[in-house]
Design brief:
heterodimer, A: about 290 residues, mainly alpha, MetI-like fold, two-stranded antiparallel ribbon, 2 strands, about 75% helix, B: about 325 residues, 3 domains, about 70% helix
Chain lengths: ~290, ~325
C-alpha cells in the first residue's frame, strides 16, 4: 500500500505545481489588491508621501455628498432598465428564432453581431445616429415625424443620455440573453405542448403554464449575471457619454480626474461592491431559492 | 412546434424577423455608410453614399499620404529634378503635417501585440491550471475551483485603484516598456479566471479512460497533457484564446489610466477616443476606424461560431 500512497502524493504535488502559477497571479493581483483597497479606504492616500490614517472620514465624505446619492439612483435606473430590457428583448427574440422560417441560420448569426463587435467601435455608430446635426434619429424625429420642435443633442444632457445608454446596452447585450433562452427553449419537450393542445389550452396558456416555468431558472440566472455586469459597467457608458455619472464613472472621476483622491476612490469602490454583494445574497436566496 | 401557419401569421413572423435583423445590424450599416461618405453628405439620412469617398480609409491605412500636404509647385520641382529617393523623401517628410495624422496602424499594432501576448500566456497557464483542478486530486482543490468562479465575477473598477498604486509603487509606470509590461500582466489577470473556468469545464468532458490507458502504459502526466488533452481540447482552446483576445482587445478602463503619459503605446480604444475628442468633423475617419477595429473580431467570431454558441450558453463570456 505504501507505493499507492506515494503515487497519490506525487499526483497531489503535481496538481499543486500546475495550479501554482495561476494561483500566485490570482492571489497577488486580485485578492491582495482587494484587501489593500479595503485598507486604503481608511487612509488619506498620497502617491508621493506616506498615507495618513483617517478612520471613516472617506466614507463620511461620500455619504454626505448629494452627487453620490444621485449616482446611486442613476446606477439603479440603469441596471433595472438594462436588465429588464435585455431580458425581455432576448426572450422575444428567442421565441421568434425558435420558429421555422427561411434563412434562419443566416438570421441567427447576423443578430449576434451587436454582442460580438467591440464596444469601442460600435459606440461611435450610436453617437452618430443620435448626433444632433447629422444623425438619422433627429432627422426622423424632427423632419419626418415632427415629434420634437427642433434638433437637440440627446446624449448631451445626463437625463436623456441615460435612456440612450440603456438602449445601447440592450442592443449590445440582448444576443447573450437570446442565446441562453433559445438553448433552454429547444430543450423543452414537445409532447408537453401536444398534450396541452389536446386539452384545448390556447397559445397564451401554453406560454404561461409550460414555457415560463421551464424558463424560470435560466431567466433567473440571466437577470443575476446582467445585474452583476451592468452594475460594474464602465466602457459602454463612458464612451457613449462621459457626463452620465453612474457609480463606476463617478468613482473614475473621483480617483483619476482633476483632484486625484485615491483614498476616497477606494472607499467608493468598497461601497459599490458591498451594494452588489448585498443584492446578490438577497437575490440568490429569494429568487433562485438556493 | 412545427405547425401549419396561416398567411397573416407568416407575414407577421416575416415582419418580426425583419425588425429584429434591422435593429441588430443598423448601426453596422451606419458605420459602413458614413465611413464612405463625403462630409457634405453626412446629414443625408440615406445609407447609400451619394458619392463614394475612400479618403478616410486611405488616411488611416497611410496610403498615398506622403504627398497630400505638399504644395503642387514643390511637387513639380521634386519630380523634375533628379534627386535620389532618400533626398526626395526627406523633403516630403518636412512638408508632412505630422500632428494631423492619426497613427492608426501603430495603435493597431499595439492592440494586436498586447492582446495576442495576453491571450497566449493566459492559455498556457490555464491549460496547466485547469488540468490540475479538473483531473488531479489534492487538498484545497475545491477552494481553488470556487475561488476562480468568485474572481470571475469581480469587475475591473474594483481592481483599478489598487493595481494602479502597486504599478506606481513598483516603478512600472516610469518607462514605456514597464508600462507595456504592467498592462500585459493586467490583461493576463483579467483573462486568466475566464480561461481557467472554461477550460476546466471542457477538460471534464474528455473521457478519463483514454488518459488512464496512457497512464498504465507509462506515459507521464505532462505527456498526457501534451499528446492527449491538448489535441482533444483543441477547438475549446482556440475558442478560449479568442475570448481572451477579445477581452484584451476591448479593454478601455485600465489602458486609459495606465497609458496616460505614453501616446506611442496607445491601444485602439484609447486611440479612437482621443481622435474623437481632439478634432471636429472627423466622422468619416472615426467610422473607418470603427470598421477596421470591428472587422477582425467579427471575422474571428464567425469562424468559431459553432463553439461560440456552446460556450456562451455555459455562461462563459463576460460582457
Amino acid at each position: 500500500m505504501k507505493k499507492a500512497a506515494s503515487l497519490q502524493q506525487k499526483e497531489a504535488m503535481l496538481g499543486w505545481w500546475l495550479i501554482l502559477p495561476s494561483a500566485i497571479i490570482i492571489l497577488s493581483l486580485i485578492l491582495y489588491p482587494i484587501i489593500s483597497n479595503i485598507v486604503s479606504s481608511f487612509f488619506k492616500v498620497s502617491l508621493m508621501d506616506r498615507d495618513t490614517f483617517i478612520g471613516l472620514e472617506n466614507y463620511r465624505d461620500i455619504v454626505s455628498d448629494p452627487e453620490f446619492w444621485k449616482a446611486v439612483l442613476t446606477t439603479l435606473i440603469y441596471v433595472v432598465g438594462t436588465t429588464l430590457g435585455t431580458t425581455l428583448v432576448g426572450l422575444g427574440v428567442a421565441i421568434v428564432m425558435n420558429k421555422t422560417f427561411p434563412m434562419r441560420g443566416l438570421v441567427r448569426s447576423l443578430i449576434l453581431l451587436p454582442y460580438v463587435a467591440p464596444v469601442f467601435s460600435v459606440v461611435y455608430a450610436w453617437k452618430f445616429i443620435f448626433d444632433p446635426v447629422n444623425g438619422i434619429f433627429m432627422d426622423v424625429m424632427v423632419e419626418r415625424l415632427g415629434i420634437f420642435e427642433q434638433r437637440f443633442n440627446l446624449i448631451g444632457s445626463p437625463e436623456t443620455a441615460l435612456w440612450v445608454a440603456i438602449a445601447f446596452s440592450i442592443w449590445k447585450n440582448f444576443p447573450f440573453t437570446y442565446l441562453m433562452i433559445l438553448s433552454r427553449l429547444q430543450a423543452i419537450d414537445n409532447s408537453m405542448y401536444e398534450a396541452a393542445d389536446v386539452d384545448g389550452a390556447g397559445r397564451w396558456q401554453q406560454f404561461r403554464f409550460i414555457t415560463m416555468p421551464e424558463l424560470y431558472f435560466v431567466l433567473g440566472s440571466i437577470v443575476l449575471l446582467r445585474v452583476i455586469w451592468n452594475f460594474n459597467k464602465f466602457e459602454d457608458i463612458y464612451l457613449l457619454t462621459d457626463n452620465l455619472k453612474v457609480l463606476s464613472i463617478y468613482t473614475y472621476f473621483k480617483a483619476f480626474v482633476g483632484v486625484i483622491d485615491l483614498g476616497q476612490g477606494s472607499a467608493l469602490v468598497i461601497l459599490q461592491f458591498a451594494l452588489l454583494i448585498g443584492f446578490i445574497l438577497l437575490y440568490v436566496k429569494k429568487v433562485l431559492k438556493w | 412546434m412545427v405547425k401549419a401557419r396561416s398567411i397573416p401569421g407568416k407575414i407577421g413572423l416575416f415582419l418580426l424577423v425583419l425588425l429584429i435583423v434591422t435593429f441588430s445590424i443598423f448601426p453596422f450599416l451606419q458605420i459602413i455608410s458614413t465611413s464612405l461618405k463625403y462630409q457634405w453628405d453626412w446629414g443625408n439620412p440615406s445609407l447609400i453614399p451619394t458619392q463614394i469617398n475612400l479618403d478616410a480609409y486611405k488616411e488611416l491605412l497611410n496610403i498615398g499620404q506622403k504627398e497630400k500636404d505638399v504644395p503642387q509647385s514643390v511637387l513639380n520641382l521634386i519630380n523634375e529634378s533628379d534627386l535620389t529617393r532618400q533626398q526626395r523623401n526627406e523633403i516630403l517628410t518636412k512638408y508632412k503635417d505630422t500632428s494631423d495624422v492619426f497613427p492608426f496602424m501603430k495603435y493597431f499594432r499595439n492592440s494586436l501585440s498586447l492582446s495576442f501576448l495576453a491571450a497566449t500566456f493566459s492559455l498556457l497557464l490555464a491549460i496547466m491550471g485547469a488540468y490540475s483542478f479538473s483531473r488531479l486530486r489534492y487538498r484545497g482543490r475545491a477552494v481553488i475551483q470556487r475561488g476562480v468562479l468568485f474572481v470571475y465575477m469581480i469587475g475591473g473598477i474594483l481592481l483599478l485603484i489598487p493595481l494602479y498604486r502597486i504599478a506606481v509603487a513598483l516603478g512600472f509606470l516610469a518607462t514605456p516598456a514597464g508600462t507595456f509590461t504592467a498592462l500585459l500582466i493586467i490583461y493576463l489577470v483579467q483573462t486568466l479566471p475566464v480561461s481557467l473556468y472554461m477550460l476546466g469545464n471542457f477538460f471534464r468532458t474528455i473521457p478519463y479512460s483514454i488518459e488512464e490507458a496512457a497512464l498504465i502504459e507509462g506515459v507521464s502526466r505532462f505527456g498526457i497533457i501534451w499528446r492527449i488533452v491538448i489535441p482533444l481540447a483543441w477547438s475549446a482552446i482556440v475558442t478560449v484564446f479568442i475570448y481572451c483576445f477579445m477581452i484584451a482587445w476591448n479593454e478601455y478602463l485600465f489602458a486609459s489610466v495606465f497609458l496616460k503619459g505614453y501616446e506611442q503605446l496607445y491601444t485602439l480604444p484609447i486611440g479612437l477616443r482621443s481622435l474623437f475628442v481632439s478634432k471636429n468633423a472627423i466622422w468619416d475617419r472615426i467610422m473607418a476606424g470603427s470598421m477596421m477595429t470591428a472587422m477582425p473580431v467579427i471575422i474571428l467570431f464567425m469562424a468559431i461560431q459553432k463553439n461560440l454558441t456552446g460556450g456562451l450558453s455555459e455562461g462563459g463570456v463576460k460582457g
